[in-house]
Design a protein that fits this description.
By secondary structure, the protein is an all-alpha fold. The protein has ten helices and no strands. It is flat, with a radius of gyration of 19 Å.
């Protein structure tokens, strides 16, 4: 791709990113009332102290609880900014916006520029991703940490398990598990892939 084509692709990428930010911020600023699942999480956050959340002492047992780190951070936010819908939804919205940049990083060099643009467009315009970026649910946090883990996994493979990249993956995994329960499944898959690549490279050298 020539310099003109690269400039065009770069403009399209940043246009998509800005559209993604706008769509998520627009829904967040509409400040819709809580619905069933959100109301349950909000009730938990209002009724539980920091100690209750840390010790997993929930006031209601009708639904599975989000990760402890997610609840503790949410509790901190509403303690600082009050019991408002926008305060409850601020962290998920922030993660939804951040995940656009991380996903773009994941695509870079992984697929062709055209395929990367198509994948980024699908990510930006996904109704579910926009919806959960402005909901008091942990799903946008899951997406952020899973995508981050995949970015570091890819870098670790690229740089032959360099200490810096391995440490980055370990930090994302260690911190992320406090915020995202599904991340453990992705980390198990990454570990299997790393072991496979290690033994493949070892047998190749032999």
């Amino acid at each position: 791709m020539g310099s003109a084509g690269e400039k065009w692709a770069r403009r399209v990428v940043w246009t998509l990113i800005f559209i993604g930010i706008f769509l998520r911020a627009n829904r967040y600023l509409h400040n819709f009332p809580f619905w069933g699942d959100e109301a349950w999480v909000a009730q938990e956050l209002m009724l539980c102290s920091f100690r209750d959340i840390f010790l997993n002492l929930h006031q209601t047992d009708t639904l599975p609880s989000p990760a402890v780190g997610f609840l503790l951070l949410q509790k901190t936010v509403i303690t600082l900014f009050g019991l408002k819908e926008m305060a409850f939804r601020f962290f998920p919205c922030l993660c939804g916006v951040a995940s656009i940049f991380v996903f773009r990083r994941l695509l870079k060099g992984l697929v062709s520029p055209r395929a990367a643009l198509m994948a980024l467009a699908g990510f930006v315009f996904s109704d579910l991703l926009i919806f959960y970026s402005s909901e008091l649910k942990q799903y946008s946090v899951d997406i952020l940490f899973v995508t981050l883990a995949l970015v570091f996994h890819r870098r670790a493979l690229k740089y032959s398990m360099d200490h810096k990249e391995t440490l980055g993956l370990a930090l994302v995994g260690g911190i992320g598990l406090a915020f995202s329960l599904p991340l453990i499944l992705v980390l198990c898959g990454i570990a299997l892939a790393q072991v496979y690549v290690f033994y493949q490279s070892r047998s190749y050298r032999e």
